[in-house]
Amino acid sequence: MKLSLLVNEGPYTHQASDSAYRFARAALDKGHEIYRVFFYHDGVNNGTRLAVPPQDDRNLSQLWSELAAEHELDLVLCVAAAQRRGLLDGDEAKRHGKDADNIAPGFRISGLGQLIEAGIQSDRLVTFGD
Amino acid sequence: MKLSLLVNEGPYTHQASDSAYRFARAALDKGHEIYRVFFYHDGVNNGTRLAVPPQDDRNLSQLWSELAAEHELDLVLCVAAAQRRGLLDGDEAKRHGKDADNIAPGFRISGLGQLIEAGIQSDRLVTFGD
Amino acid sequence: MLHIVNKSPFERNALESCLRLAADGSAVLLIEDGVVAAASNTRFGGMLADGMKRDLKFFVLSHDAAARGLAPERLAPGVETVDYGGFVDLVTSHDTVQSWL
Amino acid sequence: MLHIVNKSPFERNALESCLRLAADGSAVLLIEDGVVAAASNTRFGGMLADGMKRDLKFFVLSHDAAARGLAPERLAPGVETVDYGGFVDLVTSHDTVQSWL
Amino acid sequence: MDEAGNGGGNGVTKKFMYMNRKAPYGTVYALESLEVVLIAAAFEQDISVVFADDGVYQLMKGQDTEGIGMKNFSPAYAALGDYDINKIYIERESLEERGLSLDDLQALTWEDEDDDWKEKSSLHLVGRDELAALIAEQDIVLSF
Amino acid sequence: MDEAGNGGGNGVTKKFMYMNRKAPYGTVYALESLEVVLIAAAFEQDISVVFADDGVYQLMKGQDTEGIGMKNFSPAYAALGDYDINKIYIERESLEERGLSLDDLQALTWEDEDDDWKEKSSLHLVGRDELAALIAEQDIVLSF
Predict the structure, then answer these.
(1) pLDDT tens digits along C71-101
(2) Which domains does chain F have, with CATH numbers?
(3) For residue C85, which residues of chain A lie inside 8 Å, CB to CB?
């Protein structure tokens, strides 16, 4: 079956990202397709490559990046939510005159239309949030 | 009177940072001293310089930076919380082998002891959070 | 329809709203802090029992219950446990999924 | 002592916990979404009235009430409004401040 | 709304419900939910918007945000009608529990093309059983 | 805990209370509150730690987080005794409302230097009136 996920909270503060990640892995293990993972609200904070969690803790951004590489997942940060919160890729940084970007490998930035489209194209859309 | 603030949530998602900012301004207007503003949990996300909110919206990181410059405020991001969430200054980035940093002017990164010390040194400690 | 509740009913109104607005026969999955609603000896045990009378089915994510020290024998009668694979099966076997955030 | 509540009592248990554990004579300031507790014609109006009987004083941040369309005449009797300056004064005039997050 | 251009529907029409349960301003969910609905309007889908629990405060008349330094986005709800989003449901019990009535909420209208462009109310007061039935028939429910 | 070195106390002793009202793991507040308390221990202050509402779940015995991929930090509460933090209050009504008793919580102890290093329980079950009185006498209350 074709599934999409919506992740509405950043890593660590709420369990949402952990739950979504474990759900995604379990779905892939069962042979389902993950059509898209859309990150909205504080969820865009999952897309940073600058996190340095303690050695004995999980690194959620990295886990998502690795899962994306392994399964060719489409990880999308909402552009409006990302801009508000300081998550930028190289192009966005240049366009807004910022001297750095911070997006992690495997994530891309796009519009909210990608969420609606995921809802239309997928058999199920599951939301993880606060 | 000497006041310190604790801000536990990032900008936009919760009103905490807005409330703390307006409280700080009102306190300064009344002639009180702000000994320190300590940012913990997702509060560290206030310290990014990469945010690009819509033109007609407030830019909270920038408002804090400006207030700090005007009144020589001490804005401290908790180092452990900041590392987990990908908020780094130049030194932290170098130390952890990251290729970019994202902290805004007027903020510094330090330990949780700075929160306790603020509690001891200030007449009041006011918390803003979720 | 599958309803997902991830908050403690002691802290928030999400479970109450879910039970109020879930059609008879729906499935309700408790995850994250929501699992504490499934403990047998609180007022929410009774709320779940009322739900079962109108054919609601209750599931608890076992990993989240274990994390909070809620052993299986503490769960209210009639509540089933699922792992993440079972969570996936619940999602695929119901046409619509609503998370009560 | 000054207690600050920033959540709607319809959604969360923060106000209830605050009122349960605030000593008689304390001040309670409602800010952010917490202001909706001060509307006169809900069950929380009664809860505030009970609090006043044990000498709790209730304040509402006027800016937050205005943002949510709660005009002053909607507020429960006995609730005082303050602006951010008044918020500062409440903080400085009480020895300790607790935010019920 | 450049995202709208991609369509993405491929002719599929699904029933999307946007369920709003939070007060505005204390958190960003109300605003960012409205942003989703306005984008969604460009896709040819069957849209319902629900205000229940504290979500009913999102439509309060007379919101004045000048003091809190945030943008008052409540006027933007009026745009829903321009996009023919007219299935806007208010849960009656949530409204009553808060001591409110429809008169306390801003009027939201749309113009009915099939009825000589008559202006009609988009707001529908529904009891919880009716709302439960509406929820049960959706393909997608997004909760904010 | 290199921050501890700066002391910062200047001889002032204040009553600090750390109030925990949230379940663990669903949010980070329980963990990050414990981190604050462990740092605070190095400052010479008068510390109380309260578990009320869903905060009582933080001390549940038998927490097993392997399945959720998060670190089980509940063993770290045992360190509180090593720092002579022994005023740990559990609100009785919160515990009972959740169908729990002290037996369901991990034992926390400290060694009393003034009583031949006897091991004593740090957990104090308090009713709400007693807890209200304790709160009222604090200088700083941090709520997580």
Answers:
(1) 999 999 999 999 999 999 999 999 999 999 9
(2) 15-143 (3.40.1260.10)
(3) 26, 29-30
- The 10s digit of each residue's pLDDT in E43-62 is 999 999 999 999 999 999 99
For E36-70, the DSSP string reads HHHHHTTS--EEEEEE-GGGGGGGBTT---GGGT-
CA angle, residues F1, F3, F4, in degrees to nearest 5? 75
Helical packing angle, D14-21 and F128-136, nearest 10° = 80
Best mutation site among F38, F65, F70, F144 for testing chain A: the one with the most A CBs within 10 Å? F70
Q: Where are the alpha helices (DSSP H) in B1-130?
A: 16-29, 60-71, 79-85, 90-95, 113-121
Fold assignment, D2-100? Hypothetical Protein Ychn; Chain: A, (3.40.1260)
Whole-model pTM over 0.90: yes
**Distance between D10 CA and the closest CA of chain E, angstroms:** 7
Q: Among F71, F72, F47, F52, which residue's Cα sits nearest to residue F62?
A: F72
SS (H, E, C) E95-113: HHHCCCCHHHECCCEEEEH
Q: Which chains touch C (3 or more CB pairs under 8 A)?
A: A, D, E, F
Q: Which residues of A are catalytic, by number? A: 78
β-bridge mates for residue C59, sequence order: C29, C80
User: What are the tokens at F114?
Assistant: 């003034």
- pLDDT, tens digit, 9 for 90 and up, residues B28-40: 999 999 999 999 9
